[in-house]
Amino acid sequence: MKRRNIITLCWISLATSLFFFFVFTDEKTVENFMLTIAISSMYSFVLGAGNGLLNDFLNKKIPWSEATTKRAIISIVSILIANIIMVYFCNYMNFVVFQKVATTEQYFSGKYNYINWFTINIALLISAFLHAKGFMEELKKTSKKEVVEQKLIAKSANAQFESLKNQLDPHFLFNSLNVLSSLIDENPKQAQKFTASMSKIYRYVLEQKDKELVTVEDELEFAKTYCELLKTRFEDSVGFDFDVKKEDYRKFVVPLSLQLLLENCIKHNFATSSKPLLIKIFSENDTLCIENNLQVREQIKESSGIGLSNIVQRYSLLTKKNVFIEKSEDYFKVKLPVISYKLNITNAIIEDDDKSYERAQKRVKEIKSFYGNLISYCIIIPFLIIINLMTSPDNIWFYLPMLGWGIGVVAHGMSVFAIGKRWEEKKIREILEKQNKR
After folding, report:
1. Would residue 338 be called left, alpha or beta, if left means φ above 0 and alpha means ψ between -120 and 50 degrees?
2. What is the pLDDT of residue 148?
3. DSSP for 191-224?
4. Are 106 and 92 a contacting pair, CB within 8 Å?
5. Which residues contact 420 (CB under 8 A, 6 or more apart)?
6. Neighbour-count burial for 268-303, b at 16+ CB within 10 Å, e otherwise
7. How many CB atoms lie within 10 A of CB 227?
8. DSSP code per residue over 7-39
9. Pairwise CA distance, residues 412 & 72, whole Å
10. From the candidate CATH numbers 3.40.630.30, 3.30.565.10, 3.30.43.10, 3.30.450.20, the one assigned to the domain spanning 167-347
11. 29: how many CB neighbours lie within 10 A of its CB?
12. pLDDT at residue 50, as a whole number
């Protein structure tokens, strides 16, 4: 135990001993005062320290954050058993050993059952408070840890996203300069036209590369300009067909995705006047598709793979929708998911966490409600017992609210800790997870 807790128990022992000595002790002698202190200290340290050590032990073995339901069930069972044993021990020492007002046979004959029950309720109150306090402390620690982790995830994802976007500048410039270099030898006039068009396109690259999403309309306009640039070089060897639905124009895609895919089509396929390369850009369900007839050229050196992998990674950071790739003997198709609303990368990462936080907040309220019910039960029922025994000891009625409310507390605990609707939800999730793995 911590030193602070030991000091607190000492003060509690002294305060309770003074109260019982001056209020309930007839003979106010030094001997009786010392006996009162000894009895108060025994109750304080056995019940207080016992419940505290039990709570610390459970915190180490079964933390609230790792197994809330399991911990709650084990806590309820263990505190009931532990407190019954500790109360019977303390009352036995008090009445049989210290005060010697009863024999062992009288104590266990049932004469002190009411006193034992009252003391057990007080002990349960102490234990419920300690466990509730431990739960709230664990919740605060877990919440702070999760906040720090989510901030780190968001920062890491932002850094990764920026790194991916920064690949676009040198990638586009390098490939464009390669095209320009070949045009200078083949057709100097076309090279001049290509240079003018390239400056316009590169301006768009600089403007859009820092954005996380752009409208399909903007991306299509840029793609058409880029296609004109390609037509400047390849003339009739390359054909383009745009058939995108108007309702998709206001949706979003990652910037420069079409440019990278168009570039890949040219890079990995040969194109001649007799066998032109046909590239189609069209809508299909909730995707923007880029398809070309397959005319694979032999690669002198291995491709860097920046284009397609860059798009896949950027989409994975922004949405759960996947980029699909289809390949057959005749065609190669890439499906880009279109996003119906604009978001940013931090919101995309934290969106699910907000929902998780709301569920966790609701869960905490339910658990706090249960502990409030339990603590109220532990406070009020003993007072009802005292009132019953003081006013009408021959007419025992306290067991009616004790049993009725007790059943309600048990039912409340069962509904909160994974029995009932939560059990059904848990089973549904397990079934869905199994189906997804198939």
Report:
1. beta
2. 60
3. HHHHHHHHHHHHHHHHHHTT-S-EEHHHHHHHHH
4. no
5. 414
6. bbebeeeebbbbbbebeeebbbbbbbebeeeeeeee
7. 19
8. HHHHHHHHHHHHHHHHHH-SS--HHHHHHHHHH
9. 12
10. 3.30.565.10
11. 10
12. 84
Tokens of 421: 């609707």
Query: Among residues 15, 2, 95, 85, which one has the least CA distance to residue 46?
Result: 85
HSE of 413, CA atoms in CB hemisphere, 13 A: 21
pLDDT at 302: 55
Number of neighbours of residue 237 by Cβ within 10 angstroms: 17
Of 59, 227, 240, 24, the residue nearest 133 (C-alpha): 59
Instruction: Give me the DSSP letters along 266-308.
Output: HHHB---SSS-EEEEEEEETTEEEEEEE--BPPPSS----HHH
**Torsion angles phi and psi, residue 388, rounded to 5:** -60, -50
The reported pLDDT for the residue numbered 338 is: 92
Paired strand residues for 281: 242, 290
Q: Looking at 54-68, 138-152, 202-216, 237-251, which range is the least confident one?
A: 138-152
Q: What is the pLDDT of residue 207?
A: 74
Does 322 score more than 80 pLDDT? yes
- State how far the Cα of 213 lies from the Cα of 50, in Å rounded to an integer: 59
Query: Residues 276, 234: contact at Cβ < 8 Å?
Result: no
Within 10 Å of residue 259's Cβ, how many Cβ atoms? 25
The Cα 241–Cα 97 span in angstroms is 99
Domain spans in the chain, listed from the N-terminal domain onward: 1-139, 167-347, 398-438
Q: What is the mean pLDDT of residues 308-333?
A: 84
Structure tokens at 74: 């084990």
Cα angle 345, 349, 354; round to 5: 130
Q: What is the pLDDT of residues 191-234, one digit of tens each?
A: 777 777 777 777 777 776 667 788 999 889 888 888 887 887 77
Reported as half-sphere exposure (CB side, CA atoms, 13 A), residue 241 has a value of 12
- Cβ proximity of 257 and 219 under 8 Å: yes
Considering only residues 25 and 248, tell me which one the structure prediction assigns the higher pLDDT: 248
Give the CA distances from residue 5 to residues 44, 53, 354, in Å, rounded to whole numbers and listed in that order: 11, 11, 37
As a whole number of angstroms, the distance between CA 246 and CA 147 comes to: 42
Q: Crossing angle of helices 345-391/306-318, nearest 10°?
A: 30
